[in-house]
Amino acid sequence: MSEEALNLLKKIQQTTFASYDMLLYLDTHEDDKKAFKLLQSLGTKKKALIAEYEDKFGPLMQSAVPEQESFNWLDNPWPWEKEGNK
Amino acid sequence: MFEYKKFLEYPVKIKNTNPRLANIIITQYGGPNGELAASVRYLSQRYTMPDKVSKGLLTDIGTEELAHLEIVGSLVSQLSKCAPPEEWEKLQSWEYYSDNGASVYPQSAQGSPFNAASIAVTGDPLTNLYEDLAAEQKARAVYDNILRLSDDPDVNEVIKFLRQREVVHFQRFGEALDKMQSDLKQKKITGTGLKKCK
Q1: What is the ipTM of this complex?
Q2: CA B156 → CA A14, B24, B31, B151, distances in Å?
C-alpha cells in the first residue's frame, strides 16, 4: 500500500473509532443533543474520507464493490496483514 | 445483518515475531474472558432485553467485540507468521504449532478450545447486565496481565487500546443497568423476575 493510502486509511480509522465511541455514549445518553451534533459532524467527515479512499484505492465496504470500475475487492493487503496497517 | 469493513478498528503492525507471546495473547481470541466470548455473550443476550437502551447497547458493543476479535487475531497472526520452527521450540510454543501451525485458533492460553460455558445468557435482564459488568472487568484484568508479560511496544500499544475499551464498555453497561433499575422501579418496563410473558 502506498504511503498516501496508509495515511488516509489511518484518518478513516480515527474518525470511524471516534464515531463508534460516540454511538455507544449516545446509547446511554439519548437526549444529549450536543453529542448527537458531534456524531453528525464525525459522520460527515468519515463519509467524505471513505469516499475519497474508495475512489482512489479501492473498496473499504462490501457495499462499495459495485461502484468500482472493475472487481477489485480481492486486492491485497487484507486488514490483518502488516502491510495494510500504519 | 453485518457488513464487513476492510480495515481494522485499530492498526496492528508488529515488527518482530514472537510465538511465545502469540500463545499468551491467543487467550483473548478464544479464552474464557476473550473477545469471541464477549461478542457471543452480548449478541445472544439481546433477545430478552426489555428496554431499548440495553437492546441497542448490546448490539453495538457486541459488534465492536467482533472488531476486537479481528484485532487480536491480527496480533497473533503477525507475531507468529513465518517464525521459524526453532523459534517455536525455543519459546516453548511447539504444542500449539503442532496442531495449528502459524494460524489463529480460538483457544485459551492454557490450550482449552473455545467453550461457551465461559459465558452466561440467563434471560433475566438484570442478571445479564451484572454478568456483562463482570465480563468487562475480567477482560480488562487479562489485558493487564498481558501488559505485565509483554515488553514489545508494538504489541502493547494495541493491548492498551483494547484494555481501554473494556473500561468504556464497563461504564456504558453501568449506565444501562442504572437506567433499567430506575425503569423497573417506575414500572416503565417489566419482563424480569417471576412475571409472566405477555
Answers
A1: 0.97
A2: 18, 13, 19, 7
